[in-house]
Protein 1
Amino acid sequence: MENWHFELFGGVRARRGSLVLDELAGRKTGALLALLALAPGRLRPREEVIDLIWPEIDFDDARNRFKQTLAVLRKQLEPAGTAPGSVLIADRLQVGLASSVQVDVVAFQEALRRAASAKDSLAQAGHLDSALALYQGELAPGFYLDALLSERERLAALAESARERRQALEPALLLSVFTESRKEEGQAQTEWAPVLQRPLNAFFGRQWEKDEIVRLLREHRLVTILGPGGTGKTRLVQELEGIRFLSLSSLREGSRLHEALVAALELPPSDEATLVRLRAALEGQTLALDNFEQLVATGGPEAVDALQRAIPTLRLIVTSRIKLNLAAEQVFPLSPLVAEDAVALFCDRAQRARPDFTLTDKNKSIVTDLCRRLDGLPLALELAAARMAILTPAQILERLSRRFDLLADKRRDREARHTSLRAALDWGWSLLAPDVQYFFTQLCIFRGSFSVEAAETITGELLAIDYLQALVDSSFLRADGERFRLLETLREYGLERLSPLESARLTQAHAEFFLACLKDWQPLLTGGQITQGIQSFKQAQDNVSAALERTLSLSPALATALCLAANPFWKVTYSRQLALAYLTQTLAQATAAGVAEGELAALHGCLGPAYLDLGDYSTARFHQQQSYEYNRRLLEERTTAGASEAALLPLRETIAEELNNLGNLLYFETRFDEAVAHYEEARLCNQALGNDVRLARNYSGLFCVFASRGHLTTNAQERRTYFEQAQHFAEEGTAVCRRAQQDFTLCFMLRGQAFLLPLLGEPERALPLLHEGFALSCALENWPIVADCLTCYCHQAIRGEHWEEAAQLQGAETALREQWNTHAGWEAPPDDEGVHTRPFANLPERLGQERYEALYQAGFHASLDSLKALVATLPHASPFEK
């Protein structure tokens, strides 16, 4: 999607592509836009902006108008489908426009700066002409903010000065034209046009990259654009302005770089030293040296160093797959295209192969997935698009398992190494040392990111750190903080080079490593370090999935162990569908392979809650009963055989957990009496065993039963009785959670009390518990509980008649519930005294439909930090006070 372009000269307008907004909704909206557009990327204090635009009214009233104006502006600049905060940046303290937007005032001043630093009359005149073309009239006419008035006068003075300077250059320009026409042909040979012209096909995205490279060139004399083959390094450089370009793809000796430059510049013969001659031709220039990687080992970096020492004013952009490792080098790793730009590039190239192809709602998800699977690599996207002459996007996607055979193109205007994806990677591969090549193929067993320790353990390589550095420097591996990551395309390339025997060895080592990790992390889930445990699992999740998929057929017993070790992490990260898929496949493979009955029962025990979460109660009951009956039978057998109580302890704990899971199933089937019986039996068992972690879950289940009974009844006295019982279990459960540092369950218990206490006449106790529950659930990323807490805060806003905040909280709550497929609990009818348990307000009616929609969408797309700030603005009263 194109960036917004804001025009302030001669009026206040906003353009993006064919869309033009020249009648912004309200004078204040235009004033706010004009004020912020003067300095994109700069965040102004909200209070300062409010004082500038509404100086004549009460501050509280001005602040409300500011919020309304900001919402209207956001709706115009960030319509549905636009990432929130990508154009208009705002938080509780500051507001501003993103630095990526374009503003005529900024471009005008930049052109004047270039004119001031230009070294000749012709360049100076060109920049002045650009500036004057942008100045279409005074700044923001019709707007009379003090800040705009002073800036209007300053810019008008600059424009007048530019006109005078441009007129004064006319005599010098005429002389320059005359002199140029009299140049001898030999002299003209020193004028060097770029070796390659800008390609005719369209270029997509990379605006941030272009801006960043220009910025780096201001601060550094040598910038290396680093990336694997096919990332679009050459094409990016060709989009930069004022760059001289030299392709080095045919040069094999880096020590001959200076000679190659003399030849490219077509310098006349001379007795002067080569560097002296180059200095005269390249002083003050910016030169791009393309395809440098093959020169790194043959004296290329030394030649670059000598060139820059001889020409202090020369700036170099180098594109390479390998770092030069010079002290003056500033590396710029080039990432693949972002999803939106990758899709745009693919569609553009696909239309060349098949002119009737268009992106539709029907094929958009397939094209997006295809571009993702191709890692957003421009070369891979272009080669895939070339196949559109005979294949559909879905057919290409189906064939990506053979991507290196599929992605080839015999166009005559391509370099040989860019005619196929394999050829592009072969070139970089040939530059790696054999031992580094072998180490890379072993790393391809990883999926997603991995640590140094994982690489050392699985490969068994003593020089792993050195090899990792070599692969990063050669663009075969990306450093991601303290971890490393492979592009999927490069991973597939390396896996092709593994022998079946080596692949089997690595699969076993990889699975055993991550199984050990899961077992090491499990204790973190039942103590005060649950956040660390969840974070560790999330980093390893792709590798755990890869290990499961590979071992399902190779070693069902190992796959079973992995599945059972991963299941607690799937539960706390709400990975329901993923858990169900892997558990189901593993159970089928393990059953067929004759895995031990106890392991099969454990898989059944995991599948019961997984199906329950998805609302399939009958299937959940089948699996839960399979596990429960097996463990009951085993306990009887071992008890009869005289096993010690210590030996029976793990089995008793498992049975108590099965009882709790059966209680959950009965609760969702609204068989409340039976559910209570199971929870109580489990509670007594866990109390006897001293297992506080599972005891907390028993209290959670008992709380749910009695709270639900209270919500469902319409008898006021019965409702109170049930709520009192629920509150009792909530308090007991909270105490156990705190004692056992069981933070995940504690979130639930705190939220439950925040709902119930006000209904029991103790509203003053509710708010601190709500705040604690919200903060804790946010820290744990327990999103269903976060959504429940937002519901409470929404009620608080409604009761305080803070309608705008309530609308935003409604949007935020809905977004979380849609994303995590969770619901808001019981919608209880009023009791026989007409009392509701939830407040209600018709917000669209109170705010107006348009205003409500804008606020609702703002909340729907709000970040977690924004929601925390919004909650902090609410009055410090219980959300349930009457």
Note: Residues 174-196, 877-882 have pLDDT under 50 and may be disordered.
Protein 2
Amino acid sequence: MGKIKSSIKRLFSNHHTSNGGAGPSEAPAAMEPSTRLQQHAQHRRLSNTQPALPQGTATPASTPARPSHVLGVNPSTRTRRGDTAAAHIRGDDVEASESSTADRSRVPSVSIQQASDHLSEAPAPTSPNYLHPRGHYSRSSSIRSGRSPERPFEITEDENLPRILPAQTPCKLRITFDGRGDRNDRHDIVLESSEAWTEPASYKGLNKQISERLKAHKQSILQQPENVGIEVYRRHGSCLVVGIRNEGPYFIIEDFDAEVLEQRAVQNICGFVHQRPFEPFRLEICLHFSSIRKTPQESYGKYSQMVVDEIESKMSDNNFLDQGFLPRVHRDQMTTAHIIEKIIGEDPPQRFVQNPTLLRSEIVQRGASILFIACVCSHLKVDHILHLILEHKYNDTRLPQTGEARCKTLQSCDIYVKRLLKCVKAFFARIIQCDGKRHGLEDTDVMPILNIPDEAQGTGETKLGQGSYGSVTAVAIDPSHHDLTGDPDRTFALKKFSDQGELGRSFEREFSMLERLFRKQHPHMVSHITSWTQKGHHYILYPRAARNLRTHMHEHASPGRNGVNTAWLLRQFNGLSSGLRTIHEMTEETPSYTSATTAQKPRNHFVYGYHHDLKPENVLIFEHIRGKNPVFKLSDYGAGKFHIRPKNEIDKPSQQSSDLRGTMSYYGPELRGAKTRPFDIWALACVYLETIIWFTLPHGELNQFVSERLQQSSRSPGWEDDFYWTGTGIHNAELRPAVRSYVDLVRKELDKDPESPNLLGSVLDLIMECFQIKPENRPKIEVLCERLDELQEKAELMAKRVEHEVPTPSSGQSVHSNDAVSTHENFLVRSPSHRNHTFPEDPRSQRGR
């Protein structure tokens, strides 16, 4: 009971002070909502485990609260594998305020509120039994007085709290073991359960399952006599919170002890709930084990040969530039002080006559352990290796370089260095960080990026796109070389440009846009991860999308026009307009001056730009869980540009562009003249209209809409185009009949549902305003955002009123399934649950791709 009372006092010290109760002279600092959630989780855990004490029994001293404030992992600062700490998780100790005996006897009734609410006293508190070990009870005071006893404290919960902090959560435990033969031979064990995430017993059970599987795997290896001397080690481990819409915080597992798992999991879950209340989530624990030989058998002959063979077996192949490399997690296993000492003892040096233990200590102290093993793999003798480390003072951070002065001590030294340089970079593959920077790499530098074979095409890489700029391929990154995600199977998209001529300029244009947009990190715009130039090519690394909007509308039927899905669609429309607003709107910046000779006063300026290639192909769809909650994001900024203007010139007319590099179908009537930001408004309206046609009408109508827009081009005789307008320019242009016809068709379809507000009809009104022939008559992006904000808010309220909470909208049903929509009538008579069909959860090889 002492722990319960201490935790409650810490949790509600602000409430106590603000309501006039006796307390410390200074009000304690307000606690973060995630901290309160953690402490409530601790209350729940203590209430179910703390035995009730007899009346009059003194309670034990309360223990201090563990650090509890939780935020997600910061990729730029997270602890690398092998470091002392398992993860960077910010914490603030919450100190309990000391008070007198009289103070402690007056504890007010309290109510645990929603995660985002301030603490306030419940008007009529009741006490749920599961929050208290014995329900209502009173304890006689040790100080006798004539006063009547104080009313015992009570703990109550809001009705929403069980939905925010569920008593149990799904848990997925995945354990992977590498085989000893084929490097692609893996054995996966997937265990799914529902765990009481605040209970220590749950994590003890998980620890037991991991330990039993690991023990069984070790026994299966050692059953074969030739495997004696092999050790099993953790290749990768992560514990992450997976929401149905968002990926939550994660930590790297260095130790899967039950207490460590419990502490980290509870912290991350509370952090996730604080940021995204009401979003369903699960706990996912991924462990990947590998094995390596550290004790040679007689057949090996030399210990150093065994080390070389093991390292070669762990080299990653299928690198995107055909550069083999040794992943850090394997490298760390083979560069220990013990292995270095064994190799020195096996081949004692002649010039450096010292005890192997002392030489080993000298190598480790100089930070040259990795270089030593790299030299062994280059078949250098120990004498030559020690010459490079002790006399040339090379180490893991100062490697030999080509073109250095010839060695005067050892004539053959240059030969050994050339031999070493052929393989040394394989031991020093780079770490990839989400820094948004552009790096210049040497030809011999190794990026730990792996191609993903396309089994269907029988090729060594999976193509995601091909254009005049170059290509986009799907790639993976070795988990020990990045901190980008807690999912070890996440894949990425790598865009490749040549540095020659117009292709090089295409890269420069796109990167100049990305560099500014990276600072924004808008949720509906694709931000790159990093970029580099190497071997005559430019590379940009992106997150990998599930598909683009064009492919999505072609391959999937509409999910159905119910309240939840309408709210989802308006959320995506509003997100796209908000993303475009980050490009269009002028933002104030202060340039930095690096001149050391002239002191210049920074002059503020404004930055604004345009996209100029908006189309369904450039709206990428990301799905955290396959088939659920697709998110639209703007991408491909190669045709865009930012302009910079001094603050005192803000009232001058906007700069205009006459260059066009995009797709002509969505060009506005002003395509022959100067094009500014309204050019994007027209194109965005085209994307909105096609999406509403897909969402509202039966599948196949969108293709019909494109066909009906086709007509003889007024600009190029003999050719057809599918513009949204007809004419030769803004002076005689008008909307094509097919556009007006389909707008009317959608309106008639929406009118068939009189019970729901016609929110999409209001979107159609907004689209028609964007289709004004004269650019100056189109609404600006801020107006577009404000109108969509209002419509989205109405849709969200409607969805919550009908569904009580917003469930998971689907991506729409695959048109290739047996249950695909075939007729208009079939589509309309479906029940909401049937029309809101979602795909089964994706296999791990597909998630996040």
Note: The longest strand covers residues 230-243.
Protein 3
Amino acid sequence: MAVRLLLFSLLATLSSVAGFAADRVDYARDVYPILEMYCVGCHNTDDAQGGLVMDAFDGLIRGGDSGSAITPGTPGSSRLLLMASGKLDPVMPPDDAEGPDEQELATLAAWIEQGANGPEGDLPVKRQLRTPKIKPTFEGSSPITAIAISPDGRWTARGRFGEIEVSGSGQEVTTITDTDLGKINSLVFSPDSKQLLAASGLTGAYGRAAIYEVGDGKLVRELVGHRDTLYAATFSHDRSLIATAGYDRVIVLWDAATGEPLRELKGHNGAIFDLAFSPDDKILVSACADETAKVWRVADGQRLDTLSQPEGEVLSIAVTADGRFVVAGSGDNRLRVWRLVSVDRARINPLVATRFVDETPIVNFAISPNGDALVTIAQSGNLKVIRTADWQPVASLEPLGESATDLVFSPDGKTVTVSLMSGEVVRRDVPTLENTGTTAPESDLRTVYMDLGDPASLTETKLRQSMATNLPQSLDQDAGATTSENASSLVLDVERHVVIEGVISEPGEVDVYRWPANRGEVWAIDADHVDSGRLDPIVTVTDAAGVPVTRVRLQAVRDSYFTFRGKDSTQVGDFRIFNWQEMKLSEYLYAGGEVSRLWMHPRGPDSGFNVYPGEGTRWTYFGTSGTTHALGEPAYIVRPLPRGATPLANGLPVFDITYENDDDPFRKHGKDSRLLFTAPEDGLYRVRVTDTRGEGGAEYGYRLAIRPAEPGFEPRVEKIGKPLRPATGRECKVTVDRVDGYQGPVTFELEGLPDRLSSNFPVTVQEGQAYAVGMIWAGPNETGWDDTIEPRVKAWAMINGKRVERNVGTVGELAFDPATPSVVPRIVPLGSEVGTYENWTLQVPRGQTVSARVAIDRKEGFNNEVSFGKEFSGRNASQGVYVDNIGLNGLLILADATEREFFLTADETAVPGKRSFFLTAGVEGGLTSHPITVEVLP
């Protein structure tokens, strides 16, 4: 009965429009507009709910997950018509949305009854939306949404809704208007400046790129094929191709001469905002709302890489004129730069730089004609100049005060022209890099090291007694006491090289000593607690008025925070911080007043940075002291500003670091203080000493030294404790304790090693590093010796133009065990052979990874796994050179196996040059391979 009622209802509907049904119903003209109005929003190629695609005829006929939607010739059994008329659940459109009226239902029924025929050819482009026309009440200027200047500098084009104005250098003006222009999202001149390419379209309907003659505004050709509006259209440099992209997530390459589409590039999951060809036109890069940029090969449309580091929509993109870099601005307020290496095959393009530019998204940018600089515009209206030599922000231009849409450099690179939503065009002068104030002034401090002989020994008590005797001459209470010092403190004058015994006798007491210093002089200030004393000293250097002296200003260039867990004040390993992929080795990390430095990259998703020195207790920099960091605590990558340089307003903080220290930055002296002070000007300076907790009493004695700094080093060598074995070696680690700021290289040399043994000495502890790893190796035919062999080690360095040598000691008395070792490790090249125990050279360019093999000769019966370590498996490698792709198990040869490939990466910060390198098998106390040479190439 229900079926009969349903059929009766449908027949009644058809009867009421019998005259209409008698005519042929056209799919494109009559049916598709109904489907588009009520159905396509949820059932389209990109979002096919229920598996039903209704924006394509074949998809509609095919049906969805529930079966066929249309039964040609039979309206009464067509699910689409039954659901649309409310006769079958679920009713469509759902959620009480407005559905087709009786006339539209009758049209659908008639079409199905006539056989549900499809369109003849492609559907025509929909040039208008069926929406109410709302007239704007504002009668001001329309926004300028795009702007372009021709390569020859003669023409300037400005795009408004439905109109393009092209003005020439001779004051001639051409206005381009046609009914299909719509909103102009992009304007680009052809390389010969004769034609103009505009990207526009109708949102929700189609995308259109149009080519116009510049001189008369005549439409040459239009490229229509996208299913939604276009955001980008650009010529290739040889003008043979045009690339277009927009809201429909598809990139189309067109033949510029014929207007025929050549290929589609698919893979993005959001609107595509920008496109750029490489200078040789082999590569196309795209910027997308899916928070990625992609690199495509133009010849066949293959995707070569996805640049996934951005944390927001990628809004603009370019390839530098030399073809070396891809640059992109994104919604996470950052500018990113990748080195373009995937030019002929799929490769990972390494991230070179990430710069936090503004507190709002980077809307667009333009690169100067000479490639030295680029200018960014942010959503806030701020404009910043970026130097491309190091991708550092160097200047802020006058803010726009409102939202900008586009910008372009003048051909001479002296100005940028910016289009605004207000309908105005403004120009800003771009300063030359020499005038940006980012380089250190020529008058910057030149350090002076002194030899003042032996120090004078003084006591706080005698100094105070002397001041009491000579009160009128010495007392400077007015200038000697500040709000930050104990009101009863007096300034005690001392000589230029002194050691003072004193006591913080009361809680909150601050002892203040004053001495004269000249500009550039480097002073070492040491504050030690006396034996068994309870003092935890902290020292501060102030000027004559008691104001702390600024040591350095640190400009934050990247923001982050601690993830997974916090850190105590001494840990060096597993620093897990947000956005670590964009950070570089040796960059300074500021958190909670402490400055540390990144030493080793995380080795995977379940690890973090190691900070300097890479082992032991954490070093700090600029006199800051180690502190505890909580989970989620903010952290920043910072760079020191040159003296007198003005920080760029990039939305990130600037930290002023004063001359103050609580705990020794290199942690050799526990809770005692060590501070290096360089006098910024001639004058009197003060040292304040107190307890960091504000405590005091008779047990809070200290020893304060104000002395000329003596840069140097204290070398050590670990003795070899295990006997040498045939065809293997033993490690001996050499370490440097750096004194008074010396950060240069230190070379260790070995003396007294007989020719029958070999080693990788001399070894050098690199600049700023703490250790290197030496080794001594015995040949395969070695049988042992009767004499005592105890090689000596000496270390030397060039300090202030002088060679400074130190006797280190010995590596221990060498012993030999002739028994066959469990394994004999060897490093051998891939694809070629070298002598079994030959020192060959493995070259690795900075920023790249190469591979070699580690092979082992096993002792009969020894079939166990052999580990060569984890992140430290590459022994004596240069800083930034490491064994890569080792996983959780490290560099491991499996049981019964005799070799494996391993990968060696040189970070882009690695210092070019040659250095000995070896591996150590973790068996029998550590058996080393014969060393090879790793050469880091620029």
Note: The chain has a mean pLDDT of 90.
